[in-house]
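Deliverable D4.2, example record:
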Amino acid sequence: KAVVSTQSTGDHRKLMVAPGDSISITAHLVSVKPTCSWSKDGTLLTVDKQKFCVIESDTQSILIVSQFNAEDEGHYTVACSNPSGAVATATIQLITLAPTD
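Output generated by the structure prediction step:
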């Protein structure tokens, strides 16, 4: 049984983010009491509540990236597992939006 629901037709999405903006990525959960972790480009994120913050409830896990910049570009993945061991992942690519004149 899947524990993460994506709202797109694929497993991979892209999102353009303006430099300096904060962005939140929400994973909608469809399992009971899942455990979730977030990674960027395959490396587990350190949630420091300054740059990266995670808010969790019974129905979602939200990653907030503050003051987005070019160093934050990459593939962000949430991996969730439930008590029975089922694991599901979802990935989104964040890209810096080029400034307009």
